[in-house]
Amino acid sequence: MIHDVCKQAKPKREIAFESLIQAICFSAIVSATPEQCMSILGRDREVCIRNSRLAVEQTLKRANLTGTQDTQVLQAAVLFLLCLRWFDSRLAWAQTAIVIRVAQRQRVHRDGQFCGLNPFNTEMRRRLWWHICILDMLCSEDEGTDTQIRPEMFDTKIPSNIDIDNLAPDLNILSPAPSGFTDITLCIIQCEMMTNLFWAGINLNPDSTQSPMPERESVLCSLATRIEEQYLREFDLNIPIQWLTAVIARLSLSKARVVSLLNNSKPGEVPIATNDEIFQMAVEIVKFANLIQKNEPTARWAWLCKSYKQRHTVAFILSELCIRPISAETDQAWELATEMYNQWEKEGYAQDGVLQTTLSRLMERATISRTRKLESRGGRHDYRASLPVPRSIVQESYPVTAPPPELDVDHSSTLGLEGMDDLLDEQSPFTFSAMDWLVGPLL
Questions:
Q1: What are the Xylanolytic transcriptional activator regulatory domain coordinates in residue numbering (predicted)?
Q2: Residues sharing a CB contact under 8 Å with residue 40, sequence separation 6 or more, in sequence order
Q3: Looking at residue 423, what is its pLDDT?
Q4: Is the pLDDT of residue 405 over 60?
Q5: How many CB atoms lie within 10 A of CB 364?
Q6: Could you point out which of 5, 29, 253, 312 has its C-alpha 20 to 30 Å from the C-alpha of 39?
Q7: Are residues 111 and 128 in contact, defined by beta-carbon separation less than 8 angstroms?
Q8: What does the pLDDT look like over 9-63, one tens digit per residue?
Q9: DSSP string computed for 24-69
Q10: SS3 letters for 183-252?
C-alpha cells in the first residue's frame, strides 16, 4: 500500500488514508532495531520514533478522530496505541478509552452480519474490534486496572481464520475458514483466550467471584485441546512465524495455568508439591519467553515477543525466591527473572507504571534475601560482583558492570526435536508441563 502511494508522482491522499500510512510507518520504526534505523533511515532510533509519533498524532488530530465515521482513522489509532504502550503506557491506557468510544460510535461493536454489511466489511470490522479488545486488555494489564470492554457490551464475532489475501471488497461469500495457520491465527487464539479465560474470571484477584477450581481447570484444558487440534497441530514448525505463533500460544496457555493455580493457592491449604509445580512451570515460562526473544530465525518478530510481558510470572518467581533456599533450581530462576527484569529496564518499559513499581520492590526484597542466604552459607558475599542485580536498586556508588546472564540452552538435551512430530501427532490430552517441544527445529 505504501509502495503504491510512493510510486505516484504527486500522491493525493485523503487525511484518513494518510493517518493510516503514518501509523504503519510508526509501527515499522518501533519494530526496527537501532541498527536497522541507522542503516535504513540514517538516524537514531529514538529520533525516528519521536518524529514519527508526532506525525501520527498530528494526522489523527487533522482527521478528527473523535468525530469521524471513517474506520481507516480508527484503524490508524488502534495500530498507533498498540505501539505507543511501549513508550507511554499510561497515555496509551487513557487514550484507549477514547478509541473504544469512537468504535462504539461507529458501531464496530455490532457484528456486520446483523447490520447488512457485505462479507469483506463484516470481516474487517471484526478484526478491528477484536484488536481494540486486545489493546484494552494489554493497556489495562500495564496499569493494573480492569478492562473497559466486557463481553456483554458487544456481539461482534471473532474473526474468521482466513488470510487477508483471500479477502476482497467485492467478495460476496466468505470461503470456509481452514484449520491451521493464517495471518490472523495468533489474533484468533488471543481472542479465544480472552473470551474463555480472561473475561471468565481467571485472574490474580483472590477476592473476585470465580467458578470453582475444577470447573476452571476443565475450561482451561478444553480450550487448550481445541486450540491444539484446530490450529497448532496443522502448523509447519519449520516455518519461523508458525513456530513462533505456536510457542506464543503455548506460553499463553501455560501462563493461564499458572494464574489458575495461584488463585487456588492459599496459605496453609496448598501442598508443597503443588507449589513446586507452579514454581517450576513459572520458571519454564520465563525461560522460553527469554529464549524466543533471542532466537535468530525469529529475530524479525522480537518486537512481537516482547509485547507479551510475563510480569505476573516474574513477580511470582521473585516472591518464591524470597522464601526458598539456595539451590540449582533457584539459581536458574534468579538468572532468568533478573535477565527479563533487566531487559525491561534497558528498554525503559513502563518505568512509572503500577506493576513496575511493585516488581521493583519484589526485586529488591529478593535481592536482599538472596544475598543474606549466600552470606550465611559462605561468609560475607558481595552480590554486586557476581549477581545480575538490576540497576534500579543498586546505589550509584556500586555500578553494575556485568551483563545480564546468557540463557544456557543445551542443544544436545531432550529440548531437541527428535520427538516433535510424534508429540504433535499424539491423540493424548494437552499437558501443560510438557513444554520441551517449544524450542523446536529452529535452534
A1: 92-165
A2: 32
A3: 32
A4: no
A5: 16
A6: 5
A7: no
A8: 445 568 999 999 999 999 999 999 899 999 999 999 999 999 999 999 999 999 9
A9: HHHHHHHHS-HHHHHHHTSS-HHHHHHHHHHHHHHHHHHTTTTT--
A10: CCHHHHHHHHHHHHHHCCCCCCCCCCCCCCHHHHHHHHHHHHHHHHHHCHHHCCCCCHHHHHHHHHHHHH
Give the Cα separation of 185 and 236 in Å (integer). Answer: 13
What pLDDT, on a 0 to 100 scale, did the predictor assign at position 384?
A: 46
If you average pLDDT over residues 118-142, what whole number do you get? 94
Distances 443 to 257, 294, 378 between C-alpha atoms, Å: 26, 11, 38
User: What are residue 346's phi and psi, to 5 degrees?
Assistant: -60, -40
Q: Hey, what's the torsion of the CAs at 274, 276, 282, 288, to 10 degrees? A: -120
| Coil/strand/helix, residue 150 | coil
Element (H, E) at 102: helix 89-105
Range scoring the smallest mean pLDDT among 85-99, 144-158, 185-199, 354-368: 354-368
Size of the chain, expressed as the number of residues it contains: 443
How far apart (Å, rounded) are the C-alpha atoms in residues 286 and 274? Answer: 19
Sign of the alpha-carbon torsion through 425, 430, 434, 435 = positive
C-alpha cell at 185: 491465527
Residue 367 has pLDDT above 50, yes or no: yes
Provide the pLDDT confidence category of residue 191 given band limits of 50, 70 and 90: very high
pLDDT in the model for residue 199: 83
* Cell triple for 126: 471484526
User: Which of 17-21, 106-110, 341-345 shows the lowest per-residue confidence on average (mean pLDDT)?
Assistant: 341-345
Q: Are 228 and 202 in contact (CB under 8 A)?
A: no
Q: Which of 51, 149, 139, 142 minimizes the C-alpha distance to 100?
A: 149
- Count other C-beta atoms under 10 Å from residue 119's C-beta: 20
Half-sphere exposure of 204 (CA within 13 A, CB side): 13
- Per-residue DSSP letters for 300-315? GGHHHHHTS--HHHHH
Residue 115 to residue 178: CA distance in whole angstroms:
25
What is the C-alpha to C-alpha distance for residues 139 and 142, in angstroms, rounded to an integer? 5
Closest listed residue to residue 340, CA positions, set 283, 276, 275: 283
Task: Please write down the HEC assignment for all residues of 264-297.
Answer: CCCCCCCCHHHHHHHHHHHHHHHHHHHHHHHCHH
42: left (phi over 0), alpha (psi -120 to 50) or beta: left
Matching residue, cell 474470571: 201
How far is residue 255 CA from its own chain's centroid?
A: 11
